[in-house]
User: What shape does this take?
Amino acid sequence: MASIRTPWSKISPLHRQEAWTGILFTLPWIISLITLMIYPILDTVYLSFTEYSVVEEPKWVGLDNYKEIFLNDASFKPAVSNSLYYALLSVPIGLVLSLALAMLLNMRAAGIGIYRTLFYLPSLVPPVAATITFLVMFEPRGGLINLFIRMFGISAPSWFDDPVWAKPGLIIMSLWGIGYLTLVFLAGLQDVPTTLLEAAEMDGANAWQKFRHVTLPMMSNVILFNLVMNVIWSFQVFTQALVIGGTNGSPLESTLMVMVLIYRNAFRYFKMGYASALAFLMFIVIMIITALIFRSSDAWVHTD
Amino acid sequence: MSDQQVTNKGIMPSRLTTALVEKQRKPPLRRQFAALLRHVVLIIVTIAFLMPFYWMLISAFKENTMVFSNPIKWFPNPIRWQNFPEAFNYPGFPFLKFLWNSTYYAGMVTLGTVISCSLAGYAFARLRFPGRDALFSLTVASLMIPGIVTFIPVFLLFKNLGWLGSYKPLIVPAFFGNAFFIFLMRQFFKTMPEELADAARVDGASEFVIFWRIMLPLVQPALIVMSVFTFLWTWHDFFGPLIYLNQQDQYPLSLGLYAFRSRRSTEWGLMMAGATLTTFPLVILFFFAQRYFLQGIKLTGLKG
Assistant: This one.
């Protein structure tokens, strides 16, 4: 058998057709990797050192874009803090809630399949449609949520009309979309061997101890996967923020996420160089956080 | 000897069945109560989760003034069916055209993804060619790259090709592959018996025939999983159409709904009809392909 490291000349004629077919089958993907992945990453870095308005050629400006971002851009700080606020709350709450839901759906109960189906329905709603639905439900005066809150005689917030409450509104909305995370957890839970749980029960473990010492360690690789995916998604949240706050992040830049700021610079102001610098910074931040999560995972993810 | 085996086989299950029946026939009160409690919890959580879904649907049948009515109107009265025909024919916002555009967009991307990813996935799993493992490592690594660091140069590339204002930048890349589904297909092809291909090879079948006639029919479930998810995610896509399309009658549903919300922000009844229309085809798809959804999540989540 020709191994992968065999030089071309030593591949037997019998396997040559196989090798050619392999190259042919992957050729479109190789082209895609180069033109839509590798080249764009390098070009983003290059463009971040230029001034580029699309109409004229890119002009090298050194670190000017980065200086501008940190020293003069009044929208940069709010965008970063909004994105951090959003990610730091929506990621952990979403993970805990989706794990809890998955455990609920993993129970033995009649008709559990129907519940699982119903739980996936919200994940089917396209982000724009979901956001508009939430705008209707969170409408300050006549929306369902506030009418419900007022039934208990509590004064209700103005949600997306109030700079303080707009982000919590966005986070609550993000929790509605945890169907995917939940089902990934559910699939993981079904792989936890019941013999282990039964053994723990024999030894007198209570429900919490079984969860803490059997389920959680067995699920740690799934938790890692969901955590990383959720972090990457949360830092790039765009559609929901744009539908609610537009490119200005109304009210008062409270929903201006970094991705919206990048979009505004690239496609409203056509400052491609500047937008590239912002995008590259954001990329570095996401990479650092992902790397930290992976590094810490040695301590808490059980691999066997 | 053989008689004994038969009787053994006959006795064993029946004993087990009796035990099970016994257990079910006389559940202790505590067990019944626990089962009831489970259902109560499940039902409450399900209702909370499905509320936005329900609210979107009933608001689509409400008059504008009824959408935010106090006290809460749990059912539209009168039912306003006209919201749908009005949305279909709204001047400047042809929702039926949007529906067709979404179908075309998601359908073409699905077609492209299925072709390119099954070819590349098969090559990575089954064909030996120089550089394969390095290329596959690169493919897996590219899964971790957030789109934020590539989208500006990719946009500029398509702009220079003169593709702006058309579906080309949205559809053509799908025919060149997608790291996530190539990975998925590779895992699938890996589990297929190698002997089949080898036997065909000895019989003189060409590599393409082996792929097309022997391997591809075997992974049909994976092809359906890939199609269903590609269709869903493309239907959800908002950012792509937002940056590449500029004629309103070209818009897919999500973008059309966004444009409608930006310019006709008080037409809540029609907006919710649009949101329902944007969601409904996916619900139908989900009910037909339900088991593939759940199976797909199991595969994509855990092995990613």
User: Anything to note?
Assistant: Chain B has a mean pLDDT of 84. The domain at 87-303 of chain B is CATH 1.10.3720.10 (MetI-like fold). Chain B has two domains: 25-85, 87-303. Chain B touches chain A through 94 residues (CB under 8 Å).
